[in-house]
Design a protein that fits this description.
62 residues, alpha+beta, 1 helix, 4 strands, globular
Length: 62
């Protein structure tokens, strides 16, 4: 099951489920799989792990 989160300034934040294909985290030097999909401006999509999710959202909101 996939959960959707409402975050101001970001079009979509989804928590990836077990059935999603593993993706690498967007953060430099991070070797963890991404747990979240972040869509901004209905164009740019990034994948982030739990640890780097807030930073990814803050960057998208700037």
């Amino acid at each position: 099951m996939t959960e959707q989160f409402d975050r101001p300034g970001v079009d979509l934040v989804l928590k990836l489920g077990e059935r999603n294909t593993p993706r690498s985290c967007v953060a430099d030097g991070c070797d963890q799989d991404a747990n979240y999909y972040v869509l901004t401006d209905n164009v740019l999509s990034e994948y982030a792990c739990e640890e780097h999710l807030e930073g990814t959202i803050e960057r998208a909101q700037a």
